[in-house]
Amino acid sequence: MKAILVLEDGFTLEGRTFVGSGEIKGEVVFNTSMTGYQEIITDPSYKGQMVVMTYPLIGNYGINIHDNESKHPQVEAFIVKEYCEYPHNWQSEGSLKNYLEKHNIIGIEGIDTRALTRHIRQDGAMKGIISTIDNDINSLNKKVNNYAGLVGKDMVKYVSCKKEYQWNKQGKYHVVAIDYGIKHSILKMLEENNCQITVVPASTSAESILEKNPNGIFLSNGPGDPAAVPYAVKETKKLLGKKPIFGICFGQQILGQALGLSTYKLKFGHRGGNHPVKNLLNNHVEISTQNHGFCVELPDKNEREKMGGYIKDLEITHINLNDNTLEGFRHPELNCFSIQYHPEASPGPHDSHYLFKDFIKLMSDIQ
């Protein structure tokens, strides 16, 4: 079935559906990972977005229940160059097509994903619309420009758990994980590091969290604009200095705001499993997995000293080697640290697994 993709600036491409039909809007972004499409489409950080895969052939190893990062797909639509109709892998339990069809997600192929990616890199991630029912480009362009987009919109409320739950019941360290859109692989990594994890909704009060007397608090990944969730920032401020805190991705953006920093939207974001990050504490370079469209603003050391407050004693620990954006910081006196990328790396390299051990050590040292 014919499918038309129109971006807000009028850029138009035509392809065909390999699953689904209808019309859907979202922010169009690209991911450079060569594998891991199942983890990508089930990552809650992609809520509100239509994902373009830069690797040309997608679907060749099927789908299995073990690689889901949440209970169902989170992407608004999935855009590929070529869909593999007949997957083959010893772990495969079904096709990507059937999985997306089950959850009413549109998938389109035959799109020039190289041209689309180059356009986004040049002009930035932008709003888009996919339609199989409207062939009028002017009509589609009007619809997409009437779409509000993600900036200023709280997307966390769509992916956070509705009530508290126990991920596992055993572990030396009790961790309360605040769910802004947490991935299952992060919870598995905490569990492997001897943590007992209580997952709570994003709107949970600091008082309720501290009543549980955890050894540490984890701020998870999540979708959308971090400036659109002031309630999360407000409660995180109350947690500073009370318990060790470890933030990942969206969690870093929340922690940064709680400390007094601001956030901004990147031109086209960082999404993929091949992003180089420099650890300034040991001068090692890590290849990281990333998925974010916003970032914490990085004032230089002199500016941080002038700003005072918590920011004065903030230590920058990691920098992105592609664009020098902030990838990690810590505040030793408050026993908190965070990373902008995904150290659980699902999918992706395992260079950054040590960060979970750093969290364990931080909790162990202040017991």
From TrEMBL:
It catalyses: hydrogencarbonate + L-glutamine + 2 ATP + H2O = carbamoyl phosphate + L-glutamate + 2 ADP + phosphate + 2 H(+); L-glutamine + H2O = L-glutamate + NH4(+). Signal peptide: none annotated. GO terms for molecular function: ATP binding; carbamoyl-phosphate synthase (glutamine-hydrolyzing) activity. Residues 1-131 form the Carbamoyl-phosphate synthase small subunit N-terminal domain. Residues 1-173 are annotated as: CPSase. Pathway: Amino-acid biosynthesis; L-arginine biosynthesis; carbamoyl phosphate from bicarbonate: step 1/1; Pyrimidine metabolism; UMP biosynthesis via de novo pathway; (S)-dihydroorotate from bicarbonate: step 1/3. Keywords: Amino-acid biosynthesis, Arginine biosynthesis, ATP-binding, Glutamine amidotransferase, Ligase, Nucleotide-binding, Pyrimidine biosynthesis. One of its GO terms (biological process) is 'de novo' UMP biosynthetic process. Transmembrane segments: none annotated. PROSITE patterns: GATASE_TYPE_1. L-glutamine binds at S45, G222, G224, F250, Q253, N291, G293, F294. InterPro entries: Anth_synth/Amidotransfase, CarbamoylP_synth_ssu, CarbamoylP_synth_ssu_N, CarbP_synth_ssu_N_sf, Class_I_gatase-like, CPSase_GATase1, GATASE. It holds the Pfam family CPSase_sm_chain. It is an enzyme of class 6 (ligase). SMART domains: CPSase_sm_chain. The active site is at C249 (nucleophile), H342, E344. Small subunit of the glutamine-dependent carbamoyl phosphate synthetase (CPSase). CPSase catalyzes the formation of carbamoyl phosphate from the ammonia moiety of glutamine, carbonate, and phosphate donated by ATP, constituting the first step of 2 biosynthetic pathways, one leading to arginine and/or urea and the other to pyrimidine nucleotides. The small subunit (glutamine amidotransferase) binds and cleaves glutamine to supply the large subunit with the substrate ammonia. NCBIfam families: CPSaseIIsmall (TIGR01368), PRK12838.1 (NF009475). Belongs to the CarA family. HAMAP family: CPSase_S_chain (MF_01209). Composed of two chains; the small (or glutamine) chain promotes the hydrolysis of glutamine to ammonia, which is used by the large (or ammonia) chain to synthesize carbamoyl phosphate. Tetramer of heterodimers (alpha,beta)4. This is Carbamoyl phosphate synthase small chain. It comes from Iocasia fonsfrigidae. The gene is carA.
